[in-house]
Amino acid sequence: MSQKFDVVVVGAGPGGYVAAIRAAQLGLKTACIEKYQGKEGKTALGGTCLNVGCIPSKALLDSSYKYHEAHEGFKVHGINAGEVTIDVPAMVGRKDQIVKNLTGGVAALFKANGVTLLEGHGKLLSNKRVEVTGKDGNSEVVEAENIILASGSRPVDIPPAPVDQKVIVDSTGALDFQTVPKRLGVIGAGVIGLELGSVWARLGSEVTVLEALDKFLPAADEQVAKEAFKVLTKQGLTIRLGARVTGSEVNGDQVTVSYTDAEGEQKIEFDRLIVAVGRRPVTTDLLAADSGVDSDERGFIFVDDYCATSVPGVYAIGDVVRGAMLAHKASEEGVMVAERIAGHKAQMNYDLIPSVIYTHPEIAWVGKSEQVLKAEGVEVNVGTFPFAASGRAMAANDTTGFVKVIADAKSDRVLGVHVIGPSAAELVQQGAIGMEFGTSAEDLGMMVFSHPTLSEALHEAALAVSGHAIHVANRKKR
């Protein structure tokens, strides 16, 4: 007799585990299937994000920035620390401990909320049944009224640079270097490539980023992207745009990469190479031929605005469906689906999902960029405020970048908030809160912001939209 549940979730990443917890909170008998094994050979929850993505990369970013600060930034504060060295295995060990704490935390939350964990690979069969195959090869079939597919994504492989996790690594391998590579190559100038590149650059690597596109950070606002390129280059990252990798040859402990750019064919040698050219959905052996769920040629599962698939009672969320491949997007989709299964009319605002790149300075945005709005024919007013004019940023010796607020010229409604600078992610979230309530730039300008804070930069940028900024000269209206 097979086990029966109200909800079965396939995958325990930020989409799946959140969906499972919320479904259980709503009184639904819930199971979650996960096959990922952590470093200790035990099932580890949290998906890519907790194990080999968002969390471990932030741990390394923070450790490497503290090292950089001690090395480069203490003197200005009058602090003399003597010679500062980095113990890479200790840094990586701390990262592993944080991952262990968090994945263990998800397991505890499953227990607290009564979610049944099924360890193994989940495969959707017909008639709302899921086959669970354990690592010993034994399988069982469970039944559910509702099924949520949350199988996530994996790094894209490219034939010119096959990953061996020794010399040529993907984003997972780049989190486990035991020494600082002297010469580090990164294929891809996206979020992952820039974050990992900046970690090792701070620790002393000569980092070269090869990006096939001619444009840097095309998803970001052009003004922000331009500043980011300038700042990251100044920090020591060599970013080569329009550089298409054509091949690689590993020779012992180094790799020679061939690529073409505007100047023709080029070759460059590295001690390590990170391949960070994007991610693709994990749908391998997820859907039985007669499951009825449709996906496209890239493996993305077709869903509607509420994450329902072509089969009633079967949903899909997160990286395996359309939209941004972001942990917070997956989590909110998980909540929405769980609530809809429980009979609530939950929905999600896909227009206001913040994006963040955790370099230093951080780069973040929510809403639309100036170039997108102009292409759509929307007339806008723009206000910016530089952190160089922020007392709090000066006190912290962290004055790079600016806040940009874009408002509709007719209604004054805020359509985008874009930040490069200290705590960019937190400031953009303030913008997102206001935008969810339909804020105007004038509304933000009329609010009282505490002084001295970095948040005042958002306040001033909102005032600057109508030429009313106090702490920076306003642009003359033509």
TrEMBL record:
For NAD(+), which residues are the binding ones?
Answer: G188, A189, G190, V191, I192, G193, L194, E195, E211, G278
* Alphabetical list of InterPro entries matching this protein: Class-I_Pyr_Nuc-Dis_Oxidored (IPR050151), FAD/NAD-bd_sf (IPR036188), FAD/NAD-binding_dom (IPR023753), FAD/NAD-linked_Rdtase_dimer_sf (IPR016156), Lipoamide_DH (IPR006258), Pyr_nuc-diS_OxRdtase (IPR001100), Pyr_nucl-diS_OxRdtase_dimer (IPR004099), Pyr_OxRdtase_I_AS (IPR012999)
Q: What is its main location?
A: cytoplasm
As for subcellular location, the record says: Cytoplasm
Q: Provide the FAD/NAD(P)-binding domain boundaries.
A: 5-334
What's a Pfam family this protein contains? Pyr_redox_dim
Alphabetically, which GO biological process terms does the record hold?
Answer: 2-oxoglutarate metabolic process
Cystine bridges: C49-C54
The free-text cofactor remark is: Binds 1 FAD per subunit.
Identify a single GO molecular function assigned to this protein: flavin adenine dinucleotide binding
Required co-factor(s) are: FAD
The transmembrane residues are none
Q: Which residues form the active site?
A: H451 (proton acceptor)
Q: What is its EC number?
A: 1.8.1.4
Give start and end of each Pyridine nucleotide-disulphide oxidoreductase dimerisation domain.
353-462
* Reactions catalysed according to its record: N(6)-[(R)-dihydrolipoyl]-L-lysyl-[protein] + NAD(+) = N(6)-[(R)-lipoyl]-L-lysyl-[protein] + NADH + H(+)
Q: Name one GO cellular component term.
A: cytoplasm
Keywords in alphabetical order, please.
Cytoplasm, Disulfide bond, FAD, Flavoprotein, NAD, Nucleotide-binding, Oxidoreductase, Redox-active center
Q: Which NCBIfam families match?
A: lipoamide_DH
Q: What does this protein do?
A: The branched-chain alpha-keto dehydrogenase complex catalyzes the overall conversion of alpha-keto acids to acyl-CoA and CO(2). It contains multiple copies of 3 enzymatic components: branched-chain alpha-keto acid decarboxylase (E1), lipoamide acyltransferase (E2) and lipoamide dehydrogenase (E3).
Sequence similarity: Belongs to the class-I pyridine nucleotide-disulfide oxidoreductase family.
Q: How does it assemble?
A: Homodimer.
User: What does the further note read?
Assistant: The active site is a redox-active disulfide bond.
The name of this protein is: Dihydrolipoyl dehydrogenase
Record organism = Pseudomonas matsuisoli
